[in-house]
Amino acid sequence: MTSRIAAIALGTVAIATSVLFACGGDPDAVSLPNPAESDASERTQDASVTTDGAADGAGDARVGVLAGPVAALGEEVSKRSPGSDIAIAVLDLKTREYASVNDGERHVSASAPKAIWVAAALDRAGIDAVAPYADPIFADSSNDAAGEAIDLAGGINAINVFYASRAGMVDSAMAQWSGRIATNSPRKMGSDNYFTAKDAVAFLDRLERGVLLDAGKSQKLESWMTLSPRSGFGGWLGSRLPARARASMLHKAGWLPPGCCGDDGEYNTLNEIGVIEVASGHRYAIAILARRGKDYAGKQAPWVERASCVVYRAVSGEDLDCAD
After folding, report:
1. How far is CA 323 from CA 96, 245, 302, 310, in A?
2. Residue-wise pLDDT tens digits, 82-123
3. CATH code assigned at 90
């Protein structure tokens, strides 16, 4: 019980500090469907799926299993988590099957892209320089340590360049972070930092395929991404997964709870991006983004946990109880 209380306390501290930064205060790509060009307010929760066929050696992997479950998740959210505005992108890294709901809709990114900032820092400064900040970034979601990673990457403008030119993130950007102000940001969400589910999966895919970083840096980043919580607060992606998948998943969550950025519930953000293994040599990349839910802790967070479980069940074929 003591460790659980401590974990909650750490999460509360992370929430308090992240408010200043993520709410606009001081703060070889896979072929995926193109996002709609219209404003986010005009986008609908349509699902899309592409299947490029099984990759080499993927004959034992299940193919054509994602479209239905992902579409159903998009359809159910209005009942399971009223008010929640969601986006999902899933790419089976073995079969190359892709499915999505609202994958091109921009969301305030909160702390989830800290994994991407660490990748940018590794690319420029190397493992030894970044290592002191990895544990606080992934285990505690430290904003101060994340700022150090941004600086090691060459600054906030360099992060935006990394997004677009290296990570395959064509509609994501930073505006500011803890006094660091970007001068090259499109600011499509004003002073907020933002990304899309599609872009997050593009980053994860490039990391998995080894085209983003060299082998040593890729392995180190993946090991650091296992430092993030395995379940519960900050670990929603793993909460309803089998123990083996929960233990091995690579992920980073981001959150802006009620009251963080005003009283109107405009943020109420809970994001998860990660890579999950269903069997040896078979992993998938996933981004689940949720915001504006009327019941953040009671319905929106459980829905994100459920969505992760439903996708895992579809890819693995395992008989899991996802609270259907």
Report:
1. 28, 18, 10, 9
2. 999 999 999 999 999 999 999 999 999 999 999 999 999 999
3. 3.40.710.10
Q: What is the pTM of this model?
A: 0.85
Residue 321 lies in a domain: no
Domain span including residue 147: 2-316
For residue 189, being part of any structural domain is answered with: yes
Number of separate domains in the chain: 1
Q: Which residues pair with 262 in a beta bridge?
A: none
Q: Is residue 78 part of a domain?
A: yes
Among the listed residues 285, 280, 279, the one whose alpha carbon sits nearest the alpha carbon of residue 225: 285
Residue 322 within a domain: no
Question: Measured at the alpha carbon of residue 299, what is the angle toward residues 296 and 301, in degrees to the nearest 5?
Answer: 65
Query: What per-residue string of b and e applies to 176-189 under the rule 16 or more CB within 10 Å gives b?
Result: bbbebebeebeeeb
Q: What residues pair up with 91 in beta bridges, in sequence order?
A: 98, 285
Write the CA distances from 153 to 6, 19, 122, 271, integer angstroms.
31, 23, 7, 23
Burial of 95 (0-12, 13-18, 19+ CB in 10 A): buried
Count, residues in the chain: 324
